[in-house]
Specification:
With 545 residues, the protein is of the alpha/beta class. Helix content is 50%, strand content 18%. The protein contains 23 helices and 16 strands. The chain has a six-stranded mixed β-sheet with strand order 13-12-9-16-14-15. A four-stranded antiparallel β-sheet has the order 2-3-1-4. Strands 6-5-7-8 form a four-stranded parallel β-sheet. α1 packs parallel to α4 and α5 packs across α19. The radius of gyration is 25 Å and the shape is globular.
Length: 545
């Protein structure tokens, strides 16, 4: 095969997504720190899955232009975290080169890789070598030097995948933290799997089953329930058609109607029956529309929010009439826990997106939140270093509103930002006030090791508690009280007078109270507040000021 057409890319992109999903857990485990927050595989998969949904909307799957545009737009809308956004930019460059081609040769493919490299590097302010960026750079360079004479796509993609795996194995040479953790870069490995999937499809392995792979465990479902259940009712209907020979135009009209009404759409025409499945907030409208085409034969409606009782209250808030907290600025922030969400709302946040480590929000999540706000100026607080790039990409995309992204790396900084917020301030003044407030606090994160490893020369054992001040590891050990108290005493001795503690899902309030009481005995003037944050993976988040 010396030329690829739109249908080839349609299948290959889907096979690439499947291959990535199959290996998602392996990629997540390639975390440079031995803490339970590996999410690169999940973030990259999110973008690829969204892209697959957009690919399913392509009317002419033989059209390279349609396939490339939907792939590019879909992966951007599904992008989560730094890895997801960078991947979306790689595909942006790749698809822009090919979208006006009638057919694609290996030489065209190499040019697309070169453009992917340029766009991806341009998207990152401070590119870091030893990452996904290194893979796309060296892959493009080596493809041009070593593969430019190969015309057959099977041979070309075999070699391309081999080269990608060689580059992945080289990533620790560029980054000390990869060498210390004895892992290769997760993003680079994920991109290599995408190339493998593409290769396998062109070699003839075209069977793709994304639904089976996507099935989540009950624990995963509980974690993502906040962001996944945007449509309340799982609605199914079997219609006995008045005209079994229903036209393609009518089927397209029904499909378009369902797409406006919800998501997770399946529409099957078989003989005299038409079956649909859709997640929507208006099941009655589905039935009313279908009656125009025949007789309702079988219907079924499940309330998905009732099935996820943990999320019912916050899900209800999404459909309540919006009440603005501020006249000039709308505020969007990210929260990893139910308790933290309540705190953010009490401080005047308009839209709280559920997310954090292992569950980075997508570009679409931010865009949806911003679109619901009436204010023309929006403040975004990402509260996680892996979400900042996504927030900045959103700021670039929004044209009708002024977006201020404060690069909050921790929840504690997000809360501090809100204490400095003033709705009457203009862009620069507000930015300066918030950044000044954030600079006065010390964020402390307490998590635990999920494997033996090494951080900054320190040998870490599995299940040890790890205490970070900012991003620097300050203590580790198996006794939570001991390691946390040690770090807090060192910090309080520097002159801090106020301590705020947010305890997570893994511990009870009395554990935080015990630590606080010991410190207040030693430091009588210390002011302490304790809140139920409800965050996963981090037993304690602490702020000192």
């Amino acid at each position: 095969m010396t030329e690829l057409k739109g249908k080839d890319f349609y299948i290959a992109f889907k096979k690439a997504a499947e291959t990535l999903l199959v290996n998602k857990d392996e990629i997540n485990a390639l975390n440079v720190f031995p803490v339970p927050d590996g999410d690169t595989g999940s973030n990259m998969s999110s973008g690829m899955l969204e892209a697959c949904e957009w690919l399913d909307r392509v009317h002419d799957k033989y059209s390279i232009k349609e396939v490339m545009k939907n792939m590019r737009d879909g992966i951007l809308m599904g992008a989560r975290g730094n890895s997801g956004v960078i991947l979306s930019q790689i595909f942006r460059g790749f698809t822009e080169v090919l979208e006006n081609k009638k057919t694609v040769t290996t030489k065209d493919f190499i040019e697309a890789l070169k453009r992917a490299k340029e766009i991806a590097y341009h998207a990152v302010i401070k590119p870091v070598e030893g990452t996904m960026l290194t893979l796309i750079r060296k892959l493009a360079d080596r493809a041009e030097k070593e593969l430019s004479e190969i015309e057959d796509f099977e041979e070309f993609l075999d070699r391309l995948y081999e080269i990608s795996e060689e580059i992945v194995e080289e990533t620790p040479k560029y980054l000390k933290k990869l060498r210390d953790a004895n892992v290769v870069d997760a993003g680079a490995k994920g991109l290599s799997y995408i190339i493998k999937g593409f290769r396998d499809a062109i070699r003839g392995d075209t069977e793709v089953n994304l639904k089976q792979i996507e099935s989540a465990s009950p624990e995963e479902i509980r974690e993502i329930a906040y962001e996944e259940i945007k449509f309340q009712y799982c609605t199914e209907c079997v219609l006995k058609l008045n005209n079994p020979q229903i036209s393609k135009e009518d089927l397209d009209k029904i499909r378009a109607f369902l797409e406006e009404l919800g998501d997770s759409i399946v529409l099957v025409h078989q003989g005299e029956y038409l079956k649909t499945h859709v997640h929507t907030n208006r099941p009655g409208k589905v039935f009313e529309e279908f009656i125009n085409y025949g007789e309702l034969y079988k219907i079924k409606v499940d309330n998905m929010k009732v099935q996820h009782e943990h999320v019912v209250e916050s899900a209800k808030e999404e459909v309540e009439e919006y009440e603005s907290n501020n006249e000039n600025w709308g505020i969007v922030t990210v929260s990893p826990g139910e308790g933290l969400t309540k705190i953010f709302k009490s401080l005047g946040v308009d839209k709280v997106i559920f997310g954090g480590q292992t569950m980075n929000p997508s570009v679409k999540d931010f865009m949806d939140a911003i679109e619901t706000l009436p204010q023309k100026k929006i403040l975004i607080l990402p509260n996680n270093p892996n979400i900042i790039l996504t927030a900045e990409k959103v700021a670039d995309m929004v044209e009708d509103k002024e977006i201020l992204v404060i690069k909050t790396k921790y929840v504690q900084e997000g809360i501090a930002a809100l204490l400095a917020f003033d709705d009457t301030m203009e862009f620069d003044e507000l930015k300066e006030a918030i950044e000044s407030e954030i600079s006065g606090i010390v964020p402390i994160q307490v998590t635990y090791a999920i494997r033996d490893s090494e951080i900054a020369g320190e040998e870490i054992k599995k299940d040890e508690y790890l205490v970070f001040v900012g991003k620097e590891l300050k203590a580790h050990g198996f006794d939570l009280n001991e390691v946390v108290t040690k770090v807090l005493e060192e910090q309080i001795d520097r002159g801090f007078e106020i301590m705020t503690m947010f305890y997570g899902q893994e511990i009870e309030a009395k554990t935080a109270e015990l630590i606080a009481n010991e410190l207040m005995e030693k430091y009588p003037d210390l002011e302490v507040e304790i809140h139920d944050g409800g965050q996963p993976h981090y037993p304690l988040l602490i702020s000192l000021e």
